[in-house]
Design a protein that fits this description.
- By secondary structure, this protein is an all-alpha fold.
- The protein has one domain.
- 79% of the residues lie in helices and 0% in strands.
- α10 packs across α18.
- The radius of gyration is 22 Å and the shape is globular.
């Protein structure tokens, strides 16, 4: 067996046993696997090099910034106002509560970066609304959970940051220019639009099958009132997205002419941290309780959110540490050689790679997989003729979505079930339809047959 598969199996075994047998957090399992791999590979003397490489990665701090932003925006309740506006707009059409769930949960999931957490946050509003308007509980649970996990592939999700790092690392090795943050984000949005559309189409079919109607008039909030109370929250996407659109449109000419190629590159990278801070400040300013958002209250909010932030940040750091070890051991090169020896064409890769990432991501967070193996997957696809930019934009999708909706570790599905109080067997059967549609569309997009915004 090639050494690369031995390393990956050791890592997976350590995490699975630690998680299932000892009921401990995933990030502890990743740390355990890192320690075991140090001994197995005889690289213990390089441990501080790996730690230094991980902590010296600028993208890590961008991930931390967006994690902190999501915690504070949740505290300000700005997102809740946006959800109510969406329900007011879509609630009266047949299946309207479900469409509102897809829109609201996709957006909220992109901000929070946590699939199960988003299900529990947004789902407390959308799931009861769906059930009350005629949705079977199992359908309501899956609409919410599959939409929430879409956030993993939609900027500004922290998964996007890791994917951009993998792409630019691949481009640097191959002597090509880096892709700006703005350009990459636009392609990510282009990919995500197809998956949001597919959710709408599936929901439309389910609504026809179950003869679901719109929400009752008395259950739909007044559009005028919701806009009056929460219109400023609708500006939040503009605050977050506009800088990156500017970067994508102007980076090649306007910024380069004024800042030089190096300056334009650093401007693009700085947006990741700068925008998170600006969005956070904007969220505080438009909060209905902004008078209560004093410096003391803000510090208290972050202090109370440490338990939510630390696991994500720890997982990212450990992922970068294992990624540094794999680079040192040339795991990527060996894995790439194995796939090249199999002589897989792009069609075969489009079917096989998402299955591999789906299996691994059941026990390892998607962002960590992108850090450890993202560059390798990009290289494998590129050698088969795929567009590296498209593959990189799809990494957050194939690494971060299927894990949350694929049994037996479908945390998103379980979170939805707990809110909908749905039957496990019925929910599982309904989930398989969403799972199949997700996988088929992943294959189609990876094959490059659909037009993608930004490509």
């Amino acid at each position: 067996m090639p050494a690369v598969f031995t390393y990956i199996l050791i890592m997976l075994a350590a995490i699975i046993i630690w998680f299932l047998a000892f009921k401990r957090p995933i990030y502890e399992g990743i740390l355990l696997s890192f320690i075991i791999l140090l001994f197995v590979t005889g690289t213990w003397s390089n441990v501080f090099v790996y730690i230094d490489d991980a902590l010296g990665t600028s993208l890590l701090y961008s991930m931390m910034a967006f994690c902190a932003m999501s915690q504070l925006l949740t505290k300000t309740k700005v997102i809740d106002n946006c959800v109510m506006i969406i329900i007011a707009l879509l609630g009266r059409i047949p299946g309207g509560a479900g469409y509102a769930s897809i829109v609201a949960s996709s957006f909220m999931g992109a901000l929070s970066g946590s699939g199960p957490g988003n299900v529990m946050a947004t789902g407390t509003i959308t799931i009861p609304a769906m059930i009350k308007s005629g949705f079977p509980p199992e359908l309501a649970a899956n609409v919410e959970s599959t939409a929430s996990y879409l956030g993993n592939m939609i900027p500004p999700s922290s998964n996007i940051v890791a994917a951009l790092g993998a792409l630019n690392a691949y481009l640097a090795i191959n002597g090509k220019d880096e892709v700006s943050t703005g350009t990459f984000w636009i392609v990510c949005w282009g990919c995500s639009l197809w998956f949001i559309l597919s959710r709408f189409v599936q929901l439309f079919a389910f609504c026809k099958y179950y003869k679901i109607k719109g929400m009752a008039k008395e259950d739909v909030p007044s559009l005028k009132q919701t806009i009056k109370e929460g219109w400023s929250g609708l500006l939040l996407p503009v605050v977050i997205l506009l800088p990156f659109i500017f970067d994508a449109v102007c980076n090649a000419n306007f910024l380069t002419a004024r800042l030089g190629a190096t300056g334009a590159s650093y401007f693009s990278k700085s947006l990741l941290i700068f925008t998170a801070g600006v969005a956070t400040i904007f969220g505080i300013l438009i909060s209905k309780d902004r008078k209560k958002m004093t410096l003391t209250e803000i510090i208290s909010t972050f202090a109370g959110s440490v338990k939510g932030i630390v696991p994500t940040v720890a997982t990212c750091i450990l992922g970068y540490m294992i990624g540094a070890m794999f680079t040192d051991l040339e795991v990527g090169e060996e894995l790439q050689a194995v796939f090249e020896a199999m002589n897989f064409n792009i069609v075969t890769l489009a079917f096989v790679i998402p299955l591999i990432t789906c299996f691994i991501s059941m026990v390892i967070p998607g962002s960590s997989i992108v850090v450890m193996l993202g560059e390798v997957f990009i290289a494998i696809f590129a050698n088969a003729g795929a567009d590296p930019l498209l593959v990189a934009a799809m990494l957050p999708c194939i690494c971060g979505i299927m894990c949350g909706i694929t049994p037996p570790f479908a945390l998103g599905m379980y979170a939805g079930m707990s809110l909908a109080k749905s039957d496990f067997t019925k929910t599982l059967k309904n989930d398989l339809w969403w799972l199949a549609a997700q996988y088929v569309l992943e294959v189609i997009v990876l094959l490059g047959v659909l037009p993608i915004l930004g490509l």
